[in-house]
Specification:
It is a single chain. The longest helix has 29 residues. β1 and β2 form a beta hairpin. The protein starts with 5 loop residues before the first helix and ends with a helix. With 315 residues, the protein is of the alpha/beta class. The protein contains 14 helices and twelve strands. It has a five-stranded mixed β-sheet, with helices on both faces. The protein has a five-stranded mixed β-sheet with strand order 9-8-10-7-11. Strands 1-2 form a two-stranded antiparallel sheet. The model has no long low-confidence stretch (mean pLDDT 87).
Length: 315
């Protein structure tokens, strides 16, 4: 029977072992392998899962011929279980930090542009004030980073909130937007053209971000809205090192913020092609979870990011 009293469910039925098992079931898609990872026997894992489904009154996983797959209810429980365990790990970390002075672990995610300027500045300032803090930085698309933030795997993200479901759980403090230019090697043949058309660019080889990123979607829309096919010759990557190396060594083109590659532009290794893509990304900003208290170390990082944002605004 479904238990409609959430307080009773948490206090009476839910155990830490349930949370650990849910997370491992989400990772492995197999009761056998999840039981191993959770240090349980398979019968014990099956019993815990049955207890959860009975207490909630819903099926959390579909039993398949080979493995299991989470239902919508199961996906919710997996995500919330991961966040709950992350909260308890954070609580333990905070206690240890208070015992030993401000130290510990800060995990921050960032989209590419702020990872090249804002994040290094923030980390440098943070380490000058709190040398014992360990900082982990993940660079990826906003979609993936927000998923990790909601799951409790990151303390904060410098990126964008792309869907209304996430927005209800998150705080967003805007920083700036990202105008993108068309970039190629310094002596690219197109750099000498007085007038470029989108049809010309559709025939070029492109370096693109992965599917699902906001820039990829807008580039796709740009070509489609002009009745053009997508470029045929493409390379997908988010690595700035790979992008700049490919641009300098080939005739490929890419859409990038000029600030991201200012050093290469000043050295004339790369150039801005004479075509206005008309692409401005939505503002990225500092994203944190609502109703979540950051550890002292993570709060110190957040304060520094805000401090640098104010300095940038005042320039």
């Amino acid at each position: 029977m479904s238990n409609t009293n959430p307080d009773r469910f948490v206090r009476t039925h839910l155990k830490t072992r349930h949370l650990v098992l849910l997370v491992e079931l989400g990772r492995h898609g197999s009761i056998f392998h999840a039981a191993e990872a959770a240090h349980l026997t398979q019968p014990a894992a099956s019993k815990l899962l049955t207890e959860l489904e009975y207490a909630l009154g819903v099926q959390l996983f579909e039993r398949l011929p080979r493995g299991i797959s989470p239902t919508w209810y199961g996906e919710i429980m997996i995500r919330r279980a991961g966040a709950a365990l992350a909260e308890m790990n954070a609580a333990h970390q905070e206690v240890m930090e208070l015992l030993s002075g401000l130290s510990g672990f800060v995990s921050i995610g960032s989209v590419m542009t702020p990872s090249m300027n804002l994040i290094p500045q923030a980390v440098s300032l943070l380490k000058s004030r709190h040398k014992r803090l360990h900082v982990a930085i993940q660079v990826d698309t906003s979609k993936i980073l927000i998923q990790r933030l909601r799951a409790g795997e990151l303390d904060m993200v410098i990126g964008r909130i792309l869907d209304s479901e996430s927005a209800a759980e998150l705080n967003f403090e805007p920083l700036t937007d990202e105008p993108h230019s068309l970039i190629a090697r310094g002596k690219h043949a197109l750099a000498q053209r007085k007038k470029l058309t989108l049809n010309d660019l559709a025939k070029e080889a492109w370096i693109l971000p992965p599917n699902g990123s906001i820039l990829r979607d807008r580039l796709t829309s740009l070509f489609l809205s002009h009745g053009l096919d997508q470029p045929v010759e493409t390379v997908e990557t988010l690595s700035l090192t790979v992008i700049t190396s490919l641009l300098m060594a080939t005739e490929m083109v890419a859409a990038l913020p000029e600030d991201l590659i200012r050093t290469y532009l000043d050295a004339e290794l790369l150039t801005v092609l004479p075509f206005d893509l008309g692409l401005r990304m939505d503002a990225y900003g500092i994203v944190t979870r609502k109703q979540h208290r950051l550890s002292p170390g993570a709060q110190a990082m957040l304060d520094i990011l805000r401090e640098l944002a104010v300095q940038d605004t005042d320039k």
